[in-house]
Amino acid sequence: MNKKINKSDFKTDWSYSPAPESTDHIKIVKKNDLFINGKFMPPEKGKYFKTINPANEQKLADVAEADKSDVDKAVKAARKAYDKVWSKMDPSERGKYIYRIARLIQERAREFSVIETMDGGKPIRESRDIDIPLVSAHFFYYAGWADKLSYAFPGKQAKPIGVAGQIIPWNFPLLMAAWKLAPALATGNTVVLKPAETTPLTAMKLAEIIQEADLPPGVVNIINGDGKTGRAIVEHEDINKIAFTGSTDVGKMIMKSVAGTGKKYTLELGGKAANIIFEDAAIDQAVEGIIDGIFFNQGHVCCAGSRLFVQESVADTVISKLKDRMESLIVGDPLDKNTDIGAINSKMQLEKIKMYVDIGQKEGGSVHQSSCGLPEKGYWHAPTLFTDVSQSHRIVQEEIFGPVLAIQTFRTVDEVIAKANNTPFGLSGGVWTDKGSKIFQVSKSIRAGVLWANTFNKFDPTSPFGGYKESGMGREGGLEGLMPYVNLV
C-alpha cells in the first residue's frame, strides 16, 4: 500500500546548521603587559584598558597602556639591540630568526585565527584562510631576502636605517604587523610596534612567539595604547623611520610632525576604490568580485571596491544579480564557519557607518539592504548598496570603511576613467572585461597603486602595495617593500 506523501513531509528550510569554531585550544592572557627588551613588563603608570569582542561586547582581556616613559624605554631597548646585536649580525643569521618566526606562526595558526576573529569581529574563514596564512608567508618571503640585499639593489650597498616606529590599524591586525616587521627585520633594523587599541591580542600573542624564537632582546618591542602612544612614538627623537597604516587625517599629522627631522616615513592611508564592470565582462564572475570587493572583512578594507561603476547596458542585470547575491550572505557569529559577514570592529565605527548611510539617504540616494536579521548583542550592519548617486555625493567621495557600496553607471571608457579618477584617493581599483586591450587601457589610465583585472582583493607578499594622492606614499610588500628600511650607498 502506497503511503500518501504530503508537502509538509519535506523540510523547506535550507539554512545552514551552526558550525562554530572551538575556542578550547586558545589561551588569552587576561592581563597583557608591555613587551620591551624581550620581557613582559607593566606600564610605568600602571594603566590598563580593556579589549572586547565586538560580536557580543564581552571583555576579553586587559591591556597595558604605554605612555611617553614606556615609549622611551622601548626605543632605548631597540637602539641598544640595533647598535650591539642586530645590525652587526650576519644577514643569513637574521634570516634564520625570521624563518623561525614564520614557522612558529604556522604551527599556531589555528590559535591566531580564533583570537583574531574574537578580538576583531571578522569571520573565522577569513582569519583562517587569508589573514594568518599571509602573515607567515610575509615572514617567509622577507626571511629569504635577508642575505640577498645585494641582488635587490645591484651596484649599491644596503645599510639599515636604525630604529623603526610602526603603527598598525585594527582591520588586519596581525597581517599589518607582518607587513611592517618582516622587511624591517630582514634589512637589519629594530622595531617599536604599536597595535591598534581595539585589536591588540594577536600582537601580544606574536610577542610570545618572538620570545619562543629566541630573538635577541630589544629587536622587537610591542607596546599598546591609543593615539597619544602613537604620537609619542612618532615624536621620539631617536626613531629613524615611521611606518603608519591608518586614516588619512592621522597620516597628514604624521607628515607635519616628521617634517624637517630627517626621519623616513611610509604612509598607507585611506581609499575609495573604483570597481568597473564593462558590458563584455563575465557578469556572474563580476558580481562575485563586487561582493568580495566591498563586503570582505565587513568593508573594513582600505582598498575596498566601495565605488561601483557599471556600464549602462548591463546595469539593470548587474544590480539585480547583486541584490539577489546579497540576500544569500550570512551575517552573524564570526566564529561560525558559515558566516560571510561578521561584526563591525567597534561601536565608534558602527556609528560612523550609520551616519554615512543617513547622509546618503538625505542627499537623495536610493538605499537597498539585505533582509538578514542582525544579532541583538554586538555591533552589526547589514550589507548595503546605494543607487541614484552622483560624483558629488559624500558617500561617493568619502571613505566609509564599512559594508556600504555606491553604484553609478557609465557609457564610454573615457567617461568611466574620468569618474574613477575624480577622487582625492588613489589606492586601488578593479576592472572587469574580457578584452585584454581594455584592461591595459583602463589600468594604465587610473591613478591608483594597485589595479586588479577580473578579480579583487588578491594579495601576495611578492607584490608591492601602496597608493597615490591622499592614499599615502611608499610601498609595502615585494622587493619595493625593502626600500623604506635601507639607506643605499
General description of the model:
There is one protein chain. The chain is 38% helix and 18% strand. The chain has two domains: 257 residues, Aldehyde Dehydrogenase, Chain A, domain 1 (3-Layer(aba) Sandwich), CATH 3.40.605; 187 residues, Aldehyde Dehydrogenase, Chain A, domain 2 (3-Layer(aba) Sandwich). The model has no long low-confidence stretch (mean pLDDT 96). Helix 9 links the parallel strand 10 and strand 11. The strands form six sheets. The chain has a seven-stranded mixed β-sheet with strand order 14-15-16-13-12-18-19, sandwiched between helices. The protein has a six-stranded mixed β-sheet with strand order 9-8-7-10-11-21, sandwiched between helices. Helix 1 crosses helix 8, helix 2 packs antiparallel against helix 4 and helix 3 crosses helix 4.
